[in-house]
Structures are given as C-alpha cells and as structure tokens.
C-alpha cells in the first residue's frame, strides 16, 4: 500500500518517542516556526559552540511526519560541525524535492532516508521540512549573534 | 435518502466522479466546504460563451459584444432571482474574499461625514467563528481607521454566545459582520435576530454566505441584511467568480472599490465620477465566462430545488452525526445535534494528527480537508491546531459516509490508537 | 505575410471563427484590443482542470488538492518564464485592472515611514494616454493621500512629449505609471528610458502591459521596471485572470491588498502576519481554472513564437496604414508610421459618428470597437468624443483589412458623406 | 438589409437637420446628460409653463440615432402638457425595450416609430434614449423648482 511508503516504521517510532523534544534552557538562538497552511508550530533551541552544534532541543505540535522528521534531524546534527550539518540539510532538501526518484544516501542521512516516501506526497514535504528549516534559521541567527 | 433527487443520478452530471483515486478507489468527495465539483452544464455554458459569444461586454458595437452583454447580464438576473435580489444590486467579484474586502475598502474610502465613514472610536462586531476572509479585512480596516473590534464568543458546543449581544452591539457600532454558517463547526447562526439588533443601533449587517447560499435557500429580503458575500466555486459554479450583494441605497451611497474602465460616468486627469451600480463596482473587463458559468450553476441548483438540497444535506448530516457518535476516540468540534446545523463535520481523532488522518483517508479515495480551515482564532478557542473536516453536498450519499467512517477506523488501526 | 505562421491555419484553432455574423457574413474580428478570442487548447485546459483535478489549492490533504496545486503552480511557472520573471514574483489577479488597483492600495496601506508610503506632497507621474485602469487608481490614491498628479502630454502624432521628462519626474516623485502601448493610438512608449529617469530619483516604475504582453516579447528584467500588470483575456487566455508582477523586494516590503485565507502566516482576532509572496497577495481560493487556462494560453503563444506574433502584427499594421492613407475623409488618431507602433488603428470618419461606423461594419461581420476606449482624457486632448478602433492579432490576415477598408467605404456611401 | 431597419430615411433626415438644436437662453431647467459608454453628451433646456412644455432646445454630440431621436422627441413634446408628454415617453421607452416585437403606435409616436428598429440592437437603445431621459430629468427638475 502506498501509505506504507510514507509511514515507515522508523517514522512511527520517532513520532511516538521523539528525541530531544524537551526545550533546553541554554541556547545561542531560539526560533519559532509555523506552517501557516496547517497551523503546526515548532520552537527550536540551538547551542552553537566552536562551529559545532553543541546542543539542540525543541518542542511543538505537528503531524507524524513533521515530528519524526524533526526528531531524526536533531539526532543527525547534534555534535556535528555546522558545515557537515548543512551538507546533510542540503541532501535532505534534495531528497524531499525528488518526487520519488531518489531514495537518499543512508551514509549521510541515516534514519532520514525513511522519509524518502514523503517526496511523492507534495502536500507533506512542508511537514517534513518544518524542523529542518527551523534548524537552518537558528544556526544562521546564532552565527549572526556570535558575529561569525 | 430524500426522494426529491437521487445523489447517484446527480453524480452522473459531474465528470470528475469518473476519476480513479489513490489506491485505485473511486472518489468520495467530502471537501465541498472548500470547493464544490462542477456539473457538465456549467462547463458547457462557459465553453459556449467562449466559442460563440466572446467579446468585451458593454463596449463593442458589434454582434458578439451584444451577445456577450446579454449573456453576462442574463447571468446577473439569474443570480439575483436566486437570492431574491434586484438585478442591479448584484455585483460580480472574483470571490467572496474579494466581496468582503470590497465592502471594507469601500467603507474606508468614504468621504468624511458620510454615513459610511468608519472613524476612530467606531466599533466593528464580528464573531470568533469567522473565516479569515470575514475577519482580517475588518481587522485591518480597524487598524487603518482607529475603529475598535469586538466579537461574539463561541461556546463549547460551537454556538455563538448571544447573552451579551446588546452590550456588544452598542451605539458606537457601525458594522456587524457574521458568517451565516461556520465552515468549521457547521453552526448556522440566527442571522435575522442579530441583524435586527444591529439595525436598532443603526449598524450595517454584513453576511458571509459562503457556506449557506450553496446549501439552503437564502433570501436577502427576508433575512433583513445589508450586504451578502458568497463564492461561485462552492455552489457548483466556476472558480474566479463571486458575488457581492448590497441594498441599493448602500451601493448608491458608498464609494467604489476598484477603479478603471466601465465604472465611470466621466473622467478627467484629476477627477472622476461614477456610473450607477452595478457598473460602479465592476471595473475593467469582467470575468464574463465565469459569471455565465455561475448563471448555469444557479440554474442547476434551482432545477434540483434548494429546499431539496437542504433536505438532502440534513439527511446526510443526521446520518453522519449518528455514525460518529458510535466511534470511540473521535470528538466532533461543533454542535452534535441537527438543529441549525449544516453539512459540515469537523472532528479530531485522539492520538492522530489531522494531516495523518487525512492521509489515510486519501488512500481510500476519501477527500477531506485538514488543518485550521482559515479559522485560526477558533482553533485556539478549542485548544487545537486543526481538525479533519468532512463536508457534504448534493452528490454525496450514505455510502460515502460509511466509507468515511470505515476509513477513520482504518486510520486508528494504522496508527495503533 | 510572415512565413512563420499562417493566420488562416491559426484561425482553425479558434472555434469562434465558425460563427455566422449579421448579414450572414463570417467573423472579421478586429477587436482584440478589447479582448482576444481563445484557442481550443485554452478551453480544453480549463475544462480538464475541472473534470480531473478540481480542488481548493494549497488546502486539502487529498490527491485532487495535490493535483490542483501542481496545475496552478505550474501555470505560475509558465507565466513567469513567459515574462522572464522568478516564479514567486508572479501574482494571479482577476485582471489588469485589479493588478493596478492592488499596487495603488498596497502602497496606500503602507506603514508610516515605509519606503512605500505615499504622502502629501509626493508626486505620481502618469501620461495623458493612460487607460482609465492606469489613471483612476492613481488619481484616487492621490486624493486619499494628498499626493500630487502630474503627467506626460501627448503630441498631435500620438507620441509622448518627453521634452520635460526630467522636470516632470522630480525628486518628490514616488511613482511613474505608464502604459507600454496605448490601447487607442497604438503608440509604443520608450519604457526603459523613462524607467531609468524614474529610478534616478528613487521612484518606482509601474508598467501597464495590457497591450504589449500579448503582442510582442516583454521581459521584465531587461525593461528595468518595478511592476507589470496585464490581463489574460487579451492574450488568448480566459476571462477572470490577470497578472501582477513585481520585483521580489517590493513584494516583500509592501503591505498586502486583499485579506483572507491562504495569505497569512498567523492570525489572532486582532492581528495577522503575512505569508511570503506570492501567497501574501493571493487571498482566498484563487481563480484556479483560469490560471491554468492562462498557462495554456502562454504555451500557445510561445508555440507560435512571440517574435513571430510581433512580426505578424507589424505586417498587418503596415498594410493597414497604407490602405488607410488612400481613404478620403478618414483620419487616423495616432502615429501614421510603423515605428514603435502596435497593431491598433483608431480613426474618425468625417461626418459619421463612430457608433454609426461600427454599426455599418457590423453588418459586414467586421467587429471593431467604438467610443472613448476608456481613455477619456485622451479623447478630449484630440477634441473628439470617440473613435472607431480596429485592432489586429494572430488570427487576422490582409483580407480582414481589405474587408475593413471596403466596409468603411460602404459606410461613407450609406451616410452619403 | 438589416441596417435599413435601423437607419430609416426619417432618422437620417433628422440627423442631418436636427430640430431645436440651438440652446434657448430662457428655461426653467437645464440638464446635462452623458452616455458613459461612448462619451456622447447632451445639454437640454426646458421651459415649463402652466403644466405645459412651453419651450425646449438642446445641443450635444452623438451618433445619428441619438441626434435624430432627440430631434424627434423635441418636436413631439413641444407644446404638449406634461402628462401627455410623459405618456409619449412611456410609449417610446416600451417600444425601445420591445426587442423588435413592436412597431409603435404612429398616432402617439409620429416620426418616432421610425426608431422601432433600434430595439433590435441592444447596444443602441441607450443612444435612442439619451435625449428622452434628459427631457424627463429636466421636467422633474422644473417641477421641483416651480414647487409643483
Ligand atoms: C492599456 C490598457 N490598460 C488596462 C486595461 C484594463 O484591462 P482589464 O479590463 O482587462 O482589466 C486595458 C483593457 O481594457 C488596456 O487596454
Ligand atoms: C465561511 C467562509 N467565508 C469565506 C470564505 C472565502 O471564500 P473564497 O476563498 O472563495 O473567497 C470561505 C471559503 O473559503 C468560507 O468557508
């Protein structure tokens, strides 16, 4: 069934048990993003230190795709230096725009390849990207603040 | 099911029902609250206009221009009869959204001292259940003029709290703008009653008829309102056409909204005077084919009979409310009884986000809408970010509702809740 | 006649040309300046949308909503490529008239201190040859804000008098709004030159492309303009759809115009924030089928090639100008040479009122427009109340012009002048 | 030819030689009407005395139909009492709206029956009515002024 290509077990697992969904009080930037077409929201705190994602935490409401995708993202970027995190972000964005033609590089994307199916459901791509865009924004704001 | 018309027969008039949906299922279209499907008659009317009569109305001196004008004005006459209006008081817009903005901007354009002027200290009364289209134009008008916004609360059953109506609509009130039927809750509001309170203090009453005009008989005279807005695309009509109706005295007294060709009486570089309504409010070459299509849509609805459409809606809603009440883990947002309630059911499924509910339904060909339904303040009131919404219309039958209910059950199983 | 396409073949794509006109003649359609006819591809595209993909865009979570969104956004991409724009900078409106009003109202909604604010003492520069749609919105904005109107004169040949351009466009100038091609005179204005003068003083340049975009290649980047407005219905597209293009920075910086669903980021009862463009400027369920139809229209034009369309227009105009010059008692209002001149010929016939000229032409199946062509100030400038106007497009040929010329002769005989 | 039903000889005659087209300086009311769709204009002076149309004169620009119709109208109403003039106006308006189904009562409308053909050309009805509407307006304004 087509649905199964969207809702892989990994996604349902992250949805039930999201990682780092517990706002950490210390951060270099906090951002709040909304998906205006459905009302889903996310608050994301990030701690950038020495060019690395030293801390990341979030809270919010959303569908299984947005929650799982954000959870997976936090696992992927935590501890990485910003350049590699942005490479992953780039890979992931590409995958989302692939209209089902790509399956994603598991070396780079790890659990996030489970979201490959989303690219066949245009209305859901925004869900999958919500957390990632918040992450990008938060990093840029941190950089601004840290004067980098 | 009503004997008056058979939805299975009706469906044959709508080409889209031969569509094959995801999962190879047929189309169970339960999203008419967002936009309705179109019968062949409407598509044919638009096409015939283009193939036989297309010309700029009211402008050319040739046969096509004559025919185009007759078709366009004929459509206006049809729409006027449909809502019990005088033909010259019906304005074609592009949508209800434009109609509502047109009223707000026209009032905002008033000359100082005009009875239509909105000033600092004036009050505009809305409700918490308004669609963004009947909220933000007023909110922004209030910001521009210094007027104050006030609103009816919605209670936990999804009904307007009318207990403070006469304090809310006070002597400073200039406008009361209200939806006839909530696009989220299905609640049908007591329009005449509230319009009467508005008139007592000299306020104008604006009705958002988007969810009512397509679904039950609406007569502007007997409702006692000042303005009505609705969209063609929710009433088996084309996209790109809406209606603004207003009392003749208002159309005469108000300033126009869009400026350009065909709406003028005379023009110099620095000044212009206006043609009488409806022209005054229809600048430019209008959406002629769409107006003609809306004329055909109104014919189609009247052929079925609006009382029959309403009865059919009610049967479906009654059946669905009963079925929903038997579901566990599913909560209806809105009235649970049939009284003053339209064919819209919004619900939340415990443990499953509306997006995910909608996605599973889509797998079975069931088209619903999910999200805040352009009624964000209402969502906040109910402490939710969104709902799943099923809305019914003349081509739906009991079986569609059975499939909906089954699919909700499947979603619950899929997400193990 | 250009070898690039054969107008007689082109005509076969347009169902209306099988129409039988008054006097049993075929249709000689010389009124494309008012509205163009539509090829089958455009009608089919609209119909296919309704029959296969109809749903509210950007809203539902079902297959139809996905397909409708893809079709609608696909049309935006086509229109963007057509005018050399970025896809997000193309806004669908209902018409050029709405597009131009949208700019004026958006500017009027500016917060105080914004670079887009229009204040008392600011100047708005137009020309005497503007269509009412590019005159009255500015005139009324000026009245609302206390800004001052100034304008380029038109000389007796129907050209802009540019001699005082740099006094006219002074440092107080905020807006210069100009037509690319006059719908009466056919004059094509030196847009880039005037836009450069506007930019030198920090003014914004608004181009009315109603008569240019359908007729010759228009590229928003190379013209160096800030805003462009045009209508679909004059470009073989459906009625009820227009385009507003603006530079991304303006769309980001300006306030929206129409308020409602789909254009918001967040909403409370008393406040709202806006989605990025294009959504910010597209409130409500849009004219989806019409946008899709316009996408097909743009495909059709690009299949012929806009350079070919322009060359064809020029051949016809050259031929017609020559034929007109041989008529006695007929005076062309507008340039008599081909330089910077589009396929529109306005004329007066001594001793016969335009209405009567048009009526005789109609008897021979020749559809022209008569009157002031929504350019009343220009008529006054030329000391006339109206003209007869023949406008040519891709389905016209030399024979159409011969029939026009013969019919003018017949009118002169009929009225014994 | 259909054209001939529109442009009867009587009309062309009135067009070439319009009656009372020469503004008289004494009047009880002067009105100015425009046809906004074509820009045609008319100024009409009327002298109402003892319930009668004692004087009427006009000037303006317009097509053959509007010019002839105004000329014919002035001949018809001049000297009539206002009630009979309004009866003629009613008859004429009816004729114009008849879509070619009526030929007009020659007893009442005299030369104006020549305008019957106009009713088959919807775009021209406004032309034929321009002068008549101006007349109606002028009479009502005179009545107002004279306090009738
Ligand atoms: C030069 C020009 N500007 C503006 C308009 C207005 O276009 P629309 O009536 O399609 O809004 C027209 C056509 O009517 C035009 O020719
Ligand atoms: C109650 C209500 N009001 C206003 C609107 C706006 O209508 P449209 O988007 O057709 O302009 C809608 C539908 O979207 C509606 O349901």
Please describe what this structure looks like.
The complex is a heterotetramer, with two copies of chain A (148 residues) and two copies of chain B (417 residues). Chain A has 148 residues and is of the alpha+beta class. Chain A has one domain (3-146): Sufe protein. Chain: A (Alpha-Beta Complex). In chain A, 48% of the residues lie in helices and 18% in strands. Chain A has helices spanning 2-6, 9-16, 64-77, 82-96, 106-109, 122-146, and strands at 29-35, 40-49, 52-61. Chain A has a three-stranded antiparallel sheet, covered by helices on one side. In chain A, a hairpin with a 2-residue loop joins strand 2 and strand 3. In chain A, helix 2 packs across helix 3 (64-77). Chain A is globular, with a radius of gyration of 14 Å. Chain A starts with a helix and ends with a helix. The model of chain A has no long low-confidence stretch (mean pLDDT 94). By secondary structure, chain B is an alpha/beta fold. Chain B folds into two domains: 7-30 and 305-414, Aspartate Aminotransferase, domain 1 (Alpha-Beta Complex); 44-302, Type I PLP-dependent aspartate aminotransferase-like (Major domain) (Aspartate Aminotransferase, domain 2, 3-Layer(aba) Sandwich), CATH 3.40.640. In chain B, 37% of the residues lie in helices and 16% in strands. Chain B is built from 14 helices and 15 strands. Chain B has helices spanning 7-11, 40-53, 63-82, 96-108, 136-145, 165-168, 191-200, 220-223, 248-253, 288-304, 306-325, 354-363, 376-381, 398-414; strands spanning 28-29, 90-93, 123-127, 148-152, 173-179, 204-208, 227-231, 242-246, 264-267, 272-274, 330-333, 344-349, 366-367, 369-371, 387-391. Chain B has a seven-stranded mixed sheet, with helices on both faces. In chain B, strands 11-12-15-14 form a four-stranded antiparallel sheet, covered by helices on one side. The longest helix of chain B is centred in the N-terminal third of the chain and has 20 residues, at 63-82. Chain B starts with 6 loop residues before the first helix and ends with a helix. The model of chain B has no long low-confidence stretch (mean pLDDT 97). Chains in contact: A-B, A-C, B-C, B-D, C-D. Chains C and D meet through helix 12 of C and helix 1 of D. Bound molecules: pyridoxal-5'-phosphate (PLP) (2 copies).
């Amino acid at each position: 069934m087509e649905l199964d290509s969207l809702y892989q077990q990994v996604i349902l697992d992250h949805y039930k048990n999201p990682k780092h969904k517990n706002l950490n009080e210390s951060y270099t930037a906090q951002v709040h993003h909304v998906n205006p077409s459905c009302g889903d929201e996310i608050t994301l705190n990030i701690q950038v230190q020495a060019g690395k994602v030293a801390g990341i935490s979030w809270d919010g409401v959303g569908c299984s795709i947005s929650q799982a995708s954000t959870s997976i993202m936090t696992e992927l970027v935590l501890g990485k230096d910003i350049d590699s995190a942005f490479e992953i972000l780039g890979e992931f964005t590409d995958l989302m725009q692939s209209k089902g033609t790509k399956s994603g590089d598991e070396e780079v994307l790890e659990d996030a390849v489970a979201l490959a199916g989303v690219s066949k459901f245009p209305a859901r791509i925004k869900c999958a990207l919500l957390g990632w865009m918040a992450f990008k924004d938060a990093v840029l704001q941190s950089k601004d603040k840290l004067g980098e | 099911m009503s004997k008056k018309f058979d939805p299975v027969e009706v469906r044959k008039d709508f080409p889209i029902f031969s569509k094959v949906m995801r999962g190879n299922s047929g189309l169970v279209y339960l999203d008419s609250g967002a936009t309705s499907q179109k019968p062949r008659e409407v598509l044919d009317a638009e096409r015939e206009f283009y193939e036989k009569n297309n010309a700029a109305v009211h402008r050319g001196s040739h046969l096509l221009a004559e025919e185009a004008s007759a078709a366009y004005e004929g459509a206006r006459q049809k729409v006027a009869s449909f809502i019990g209006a005088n033909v010259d008081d019906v304005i074609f817009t592009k949508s209800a959204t434009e109609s509502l903005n047109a009223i707000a901007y026209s009032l905002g354009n008033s000359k100082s001292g005009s009875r239509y002027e909105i000033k600092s200290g004036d009050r505009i009364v809305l409700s918490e259940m308004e669609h963004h289209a009947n909220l933000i134009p007023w909110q922004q008008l209030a910001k521009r003029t210094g007027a104050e916004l006030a609103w009816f609360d919605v209670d936990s059953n999804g009904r307007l709290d009318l207990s403070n109506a006469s304090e809310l609509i006070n002597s400073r009130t200039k406008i009361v703008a209200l939806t006839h039927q909530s696009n989220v809750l299905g609640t049908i509001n007591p329009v005449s009653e509230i319009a009467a309170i508005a008139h007592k203090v000299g306020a104008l009453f604006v009705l958002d008829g988007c969810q009512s005009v397509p679904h039950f008989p609406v007569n502007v005279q007997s409702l006692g309102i000042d303005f009505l807005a609705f969209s063609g695309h929710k009433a088996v009509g084309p996209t790109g056409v809406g209606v603004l109706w207003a009392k003749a005295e208002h159309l005469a007294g108000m300033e126009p909204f869009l400026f350009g060709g065909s709406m003028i009486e005379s023009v110099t570089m620095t000044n212009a005077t206006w043609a009488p309504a409806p022209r005054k409010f229809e600048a430019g070459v209008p959406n002629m084919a769409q107006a003609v299509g809306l004329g055909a849509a109104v014919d189609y609805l009247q052929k079925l009979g609006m009382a029959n459409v309403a009865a059919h809606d009610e049967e479906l809603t009654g059946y669905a409310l009963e079925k929903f009440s038997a579901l566990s883990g599913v909560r209806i947002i809105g009235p649970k009884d049939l009284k003053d309630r339209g064919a819209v059911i919004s619900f939340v499924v415990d443990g499953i986000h509306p997006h995910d509910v909608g996605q599973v339904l889509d797998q079975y060909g069931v088209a619903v809408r999910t999200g805040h339904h352009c009624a964000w303040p209402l969502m906040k009131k109910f402490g939710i970010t969104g709902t799943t919404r099923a809305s019914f219309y003349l081509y739906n039958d009991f079986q569609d509702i059975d499939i909906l209910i089954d699919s909700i059950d499947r979603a619950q199983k899929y997400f193990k809740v």
